[in-house]
Amino acid sequence: MIILRGWKKPMEVKTRMGEPTTWIRKHSNSSLNKEINIKYWGDWKGMEKNQQLIEKSCLLRKTPVNVKGIIEKYEKMKQLNHEIVKLNSKKKNSAKLFHSSSFSNQDQLKDHSKLLREQISQLETQKEELEWSMKQEALKIPNLVHPKVPEEDPKIIRMNGEMKKFDFEQKDHLFLCEQLDLLESQQATLVSGDKFVYLKNEAAVLELALVNWTIGKLIKKGWSLILPPDLIKQQMASACGFQPRDPNPLNKHIYNIEDSDLCLTGTAEIPLTGMYADKVIAVNQLPIRMVGFGHCFRVEAGKSGKESKGLYRLHQFSKVEMVSICRPDQSDEIHQEILAIEEEIFRELGLHFRTMDMPVEDLGAPAYRKFDIEAWMPSREDFGEISSVSNCTDYQSRRLGIRYKENGENHFAHTLNGTAVAVPRILLAILENFQQKDGRVIIPEVLHPFTFGIKEILPKKQTTD
Questions:
Q1: 306 vs 14, which has greater pLDDT?
Q2: Cβ of 340: how many Cβ atoms within 10 Å?
Q3: What residues are paired with 322 via a beta bridge?
Q4: Is there a cis peptide before residue 287, judged by omega within 30 degrees of 0?
Q5: Kindly report the CA angle at 195 between 442 and 296, in degrees rounded to 5?
Q6: Is residue 13 scored above 50 in pLDDT?
Q7: CA–CA separation, 448 and 433 (whole Å)
Q8: What are the CA-CA distances from residue 301 to residues 81, 152, 252 (Å)?
Q9: If we measure between CA atoms, which residue out of 122, 80, 81, 116 comes closest to residue 95?
Q10: What is the distance between the alpha carbons of residues 95 and 99, in angstroms, rounded to a whole number?
């Protein structure tokens, strides 16, 4: 393994071609001078073989990466490695001769050995700097794109449920929350800032009901419940495809902890996937299916407007997440399995929604293919995203070192993640779609066993003319 500190000479060099490199990069804005470890197991031979495919993927995603330059650096690195091996062999032979030579010859051999050491040191420095720049560029490469992914617009796969018909003027969820005393946003702004809320009364009950009902459903389907930490190391976020220290504020999604290498997780996907970082899994343990509950923290920079008001876009919210780790030949099937679970959840809640195959520009760097689910939201007079499921193939596993052993050999696993329930948006959809003419909101029947006998939400405030 190579350990690099900035652009200085490495402290330690113990590597063979194809092994992972760990970069330790100093925080530019931390008084404690903390460091970020980023590992990457590059498929360099695969990159040479699939150069055109990778370049096409980068072009479709509008991600500028010099793939040809990376391959050229890899070839140069192989040459340097070959030269280093030859010189080390000469140095070893020189050492043998030294112990068997006369005193006069020993002086010559000392000079020769010194020259060899200097040549090896120079070549190793060249190789290390070349590997640094090569892998820095390689980390920019997004995942490949599934051949069926639409290039421009989302493709509607199917429509689910029926749109609610109202014989009265329906209200938006913010008005309903006020009448039903479900939300406190003004004090939340005072306490925490904009885009934070207190969930109150039946809204708080509904969050717990949604979480417990969803987790119970997934446990019955064989998924293992995990409660992950909400604070994670920045290297874990980076390895999963998030950018905790992106200098562009419009691309920043994650809150960093000052003077620390920690950040608040934007999704339970990160710590759940990270559970298997640097691990080799026995093939008979795959596929691994995990369901986790956690709080999500999103900067949501630049997001504003009518459609982002209220519960639709918050800095903090609760979410039930599904993560699977599997063999490459299983990932397409599990992708469909997770999607089917999501559709089952929203169908049983009685929502009208559509399932879409998302285009290249909406994939994000880790996703090979992504399906989104959007529910009908009357106040928007449109659909709004409530869930997604992504197949990340080996993008994350090569950065986290998630492997499995089969027939004595290690292989990189595939990782997938999907949202079972993002609580605020489901609350929004329930409130707006199940409102009644008299101001009540009916709670979906599947949640009744988890709502402490509450089956409907009654008005607590009356409108005045």
A1: 306
A2: 12
A3: 291, 418
A4: yes
A5: 80
A6: no
A7: 17
A8: 45, 25, 7
A9: 116
A10: 7
Does residue 321 register a pLDDT over 90? yes
In contact, 324 and 290? CB cutoff 8 Å: yes
pLDDT digits (tens, 9 = 90+) for 413-437: 999 999 999 999 999 999 999 999 9
Six-digit token pair at 401? 């070192």
Q: Is 430 helix (H, G, I), strand (E, B) or coil?
A: helix
For residues 454 and 205, is the Cβ–Cβ distance under 8 A?
yes
- Kindly state the greatest CA–CA separation across the chain: 111
- The answer for 266, left when phi > 0, alpha when psi is -120 to 50, beta otherwise, is alpha
Residue 38 pLDDT: 60
Element (H, E) at 22: strand 21-26
Read off the amino acid at residue 316. Answer: Q
- pLDDT at residue 2, rounded to an integer: 33
- Per-residue pLDDT at 308 exceeds 80: no
Rounded Cα distance between 141 and 63, Å, is 8
Closest-CA residue to 125 (of 21, 7, 35, 37): 7
Residue 385 in tokens = 């995203």
Are 23 and 34 in contact by the 8 Å Cβ rule? The answer is no
Q: Which residue has the tokens 């200097």?
A: 118
- Total residues belonging to the chain: 465
Instruction: State how far the Cα of 454 lies from the Cα of 449, in Å rounded to an integer.
Output: 9
> What helix, strand, coil percent values describe the chain, rounded to 5?
40, 25, 35
Residue 392 DSSP label: -
| Among candidate residues 324, 193, 323, 322, the one with its CA nearest the CA of residue 255 | 193
Distance CA 149, CA 369 (A): 7
Contact between 432 and 355 under an 8 Å Cβ cutoff? The reply is no
User: In a 3-state reduction of DSSP, which class is residue 66?
Assistant: coil
Rounded to two decimals, what is the model's pTM?
A: 0.85
Collect all residues with Cβ–Cβ distance below 8 Å to 312 and sequence separation of at least 6: 384, 424, 425, 428
> What angle (nearest 5°) sits at the alpha carbon of residue 217, between those of residues 212 and 223?
105
Residue 94 and residue 108 in contact, taking contact as beta carbons nearer than 8 Å: no
Nearby residues of 101 by Cβ (< 8 Å), 6 or more positions away:
109
Per the structure block, which two tokens stand in for 187?
Answer: 């004090």
Q: Are 379 and 170 in contact (CB under 8 A)?
A: yes
User: To which residue do tokens 């990932």 refer?
Assistant: 331
β-pair partners for 402: none
